[in-house]
Amino acid sequence: MTLLIKLCTSMTALMMNHIFSPHIMISYQRDVQPQVLQIRDALKAAGYRIWIDVENMHTSLSIVDSMIKAVDNAAVVIPVLTAKYQTSANCRKELEYADKQGKPIVPIRLQRDYIPKEWLSFVLGNNFWHDLYQDPLYSSKLEAFLEVVHAHASSAKI
Q1: Which of 115, 117, 97, 114 is nearest to 105 (CA)?
Q2: List of residues 6+ apart from 73 with CB closer than 8 A
Q3: d(CA 120, CA 101)
Q4: DSSP per-residue letters across 23-48
Q5: What's the pTM?
Q6: 22 or 77, which is more confident?
Q7: Cα angle for residues 60, 30, 157 (degrees, 5° grid)
Q8: H-helix segments, the chain
Q9: Which partner for 28 in 43, 61, 80, 145 could form a disulfide, CB atoms 3.0-4.6 Å apart?
Q10: What is the pLDDT of residues 135-151, one digit of tens each?
């Protein structure tokens, strides 16, 4: 039983360390999770520490507290733009909080014809989004996106 308690304590410490370490945070609406996980994999392969809800939402914190900690410790926030992202209350809270904290925002667009409107257009301001929907140019677009992330993340040890 003591070994189990030590293991659980160690795992909790690792999770908390990940939440409180500099990382890249991916903010997305669940409908595009398979594509987001591919982008996460590309970022991890490039050597970045990634915060994504399905791996890092800590159960000892509320959803809001977990999102706040994730944003506070993010070197870069990557919102994944879709029509459903724009209508998600949690996505809006995350991105507005990230903007308020002055976090670099590097948006990805996964819907070819989607144009951000209203609050999302306002928060994004002049941020250029990277089109990462699947097409013949996906690899070169992903490479360009990774270069921009690297430029923003180079000052943080992630």
Answers
A1: 97
A2: 19, 20, 21, 22, 23, 51
A3: 16
A4: EEEEE--GGGHHHHHHHHHHHHHTT-
A5: 0.81
A6: 77
A7: 60
A8: 2-20, 33-45, 53-56, 63-72, 83-87, 89-100, 118-124, 138-153
A9: 80
A10: 777 888 888 899 999 88
* CB burial readout 14-43, b (16+ within 10 A) else e: ebeebbeebbbbbbbbeebeebbeebbebb
Q: Domains of the chain (ranges plus CATH)? A: 23-153 (3.40.50.10140)
Distances (CA, A) of 11 to 120, 146, 153: 36, 30, 26
76-97 pLDDT per residue, tens: 999 999 999 999 999 999 999 9
The pair of structure tokens assigned to 36 is: 């987001």
